[in-house]
Amino acid sequence: MFTPSNAQLNNNPAAALDELKRLGIDTVHVYMHWADIAPSASSAKRPSFDAANPAAYPASGWAIYDTIIRDTQARGMKVLLDLVSPPPNWASGPGAPHPASQPFWRPSPQQFALFTRAVGKRYSGHFTPPGSSSPLPRVNFWSIWNEPNLGIELAPQTVPHSYVEISGSLYRGLVDAAWGALQASGHGRDTILIGEIAPAGATFGYAPGLFAAMAPLRFLRALYCVDGSYHPLTGKAAKARGCPTTAAGTKAFAAQHPGLFQASGFADHPYSQGLAPNQPTPNEPDYAELADLPRLEHALDTLQSVYGSHTRFPIYSTEYGYQTTPPDTEAGTVSPAQAAVFLNWSEYITWLNPRLRSYDQYLMTDSSAGNFATGLRFPNGSEKPSYAAFRMPLYLPKTTGAKGQALEVWGCVRPAPAVQASGHRRQQARIQFAPASGGAFTTLRAVPLAGPRCYFDVQQRFPASGRVRLAWAYPHGPTVFSRIVDITLR
User: Fold this and answer.
1) Fewer CB atoms < 10 Å away: N or C end of the chain?
2) What DSSP assignment string belongs to 327-357?
3) What distances in angstroms separate CA 405 from CA 398, 434, 446, 459, 464, one per listed residue?
4) Would the pLDDT of 66 be above 80?
């Protein structure tokens, strides 16, 4: 899965999607911003229109999304369509502390339901836009909102100057709204994700307040109306969080909020924030970074069990990457070379976890501002080391051993499944070796690649200490290489 920025997709959809196809991407994660589609989005007054009818919206708002969805599917890739903030001002609640925060402030579930129904109808496979001769393609992979535990996506997070979580109740309403709308517009059997949570949050004092980030497991407890010990909230604590206050209400909770229990999966953005992918942030038990996923899985399973549900959500990684310096100067960055190593290690960890259904790369090209620089390219378009690492991951869990001892070589040729599907049947990853004493790379082994997944995992003996890489050739095109891994045999 790949999540490009909307700007990169919007500026030149064909070029962006061609590159993703050449990289072997199977699914493109597309953020559909509600305010991009809605009429009079900056107005506080709702215009008079049928918000459940896709033909009632300005055609200009839909145009780029229609193009992206058509062009993605035409290239044999799937679309994960994520319905996200900001809402139009007229769909936001009162009481925002300043105008800039208005679009994210208490968005209306009722209006979100109408918008989602319009989107569902438009991408049902049966809707032909005015002036077109054929219907738009069907979308069958959805996600609801983005990082609802982050105050710049959904506010307020807590009641001011208190520990009372508000965002869980707000998101619960949005999930209810979108879930019902997708069912009603013919998408009841589609893959529908909830969550899309940010991996970290403030944990000091009254944080996160209105607009900071809430630690994700704390957010989930409020979303599912339980306390820190995973017991159902009662009384004033429940009422303050929009939760049932009686035993009867708790018993009816799962039936009243089916999306929280019947969704197809749970989406996480498990950024490791500059740490090695197996290293959790110390002393933060409510985080959901990659190293914390067993804890997230346990929390999700426990929340289901509280209400008698046996659902065990698969987890989808729908945003991931490492910020690099250069060009980023924020905290939590690594060098471009280290990012390449960590990305391959992260994907190996993902591959090992049977609950994880996807691995995602966030951003193709860093912004010129240099912030959140998780892209595979620098702002000037030149490739980072992570570009080759993403196209052809290589990871050796152990890089030292005794002479004659086999080492595990795990890897992936990401473009291979699509190339194979196009009729080029015999795809192979070549494991190549160059001795530490010097000399060219030679192929030690050709690993057959078959089926819809790009991965392989083999035991390989090497003749001496040296360097290891993977090689693969595009049909009628160039040979490309993975990053290089140094090994030591004693």
Assistant:
1) C
2) T--SSS-B-HHHHHHHHHHHHHHHHH-TTEE
3) 11, 17, 19, 9, 10
4) yes
